[in-house]
Each structure stands twice: as C-alpha cells, then as structure tokens.
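Lab notebook page, bench 4
Experiment: in silico fold of construct C2
Operator: M.H.
Input chain length: 123 residues
Purpose: comparison with the prior construct
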Amino acid sequence: MRVLFSVCCLWLAIATAASAQDAQADLARLKGALHLSVQQMEAWTTYQVAMAPDAALQAREAAARRMLPQLPTPRRLALIQATLEDRLADFRKRSARVEDFYGQLTPDQQRIFDQETAPPVSR
C-alpha cells in the first residue's frame, strides 16, 4: 500500500513536461511546419486555445499536493482519485479538440502533425 501511495504522490508531483514558454515555442514550430492555409486558421486557433494550460486545474493539483501529507490515507486516496478524474476529463476535452483540428489537415499535414507531436523514443 505504501508503494501505491508513493507512486500516486510521485505522479501528482510531476509538473507539466514543458514550461508555458516551451509549449508556446512548440506550438509556433508546429504551426510553421504545417504551412496552414487561411481556411485552416480558425481550426488552428481553436486547437491552440485548447492546448493552453488550464490554470484552474493546475491550481487544484497544487492544492492537492499541499494537502496530501496532512490527510489520513482514505482521504488521500480519494483526493488522488479526484485529481486523476480531473486529469482524465481534461484529457478527453483536449483530445476532442486535437481530433477536430487533425480532421482539418491534409494527409501531408497529418503526417507532419504526427511526426511533430509524437513522444520522444526512449532507449
């Protein structure tokens, strides 16, 4: 049980992969690589807004991390579960926006999008 709790706490403590500035630079690189048409710009804007960090979600997660050490185990687990459910809801919202944007791309642009957004290969 302690290992499970430690893993969950570690997961909660992991910050987003990139800073907001890095994320903006990544989006700018992606936009340049895609060579979007004028007709695709509205879809791009919607996608870009959806990919922005959710300040409210980040604040709730930070509050959860601060609260965890003071809570009894059942409440810690409930808080971790609630945090995971929030993240899943956020993921579903973002993935729907990605799919909407992806559907507006040409096959060549989809290939570029796939390459540019794929996670790094670990060795």
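Observations: The chain has one domain: 20-117. Residues 20-117 form one domain.
Next step: discuss at group meeting.
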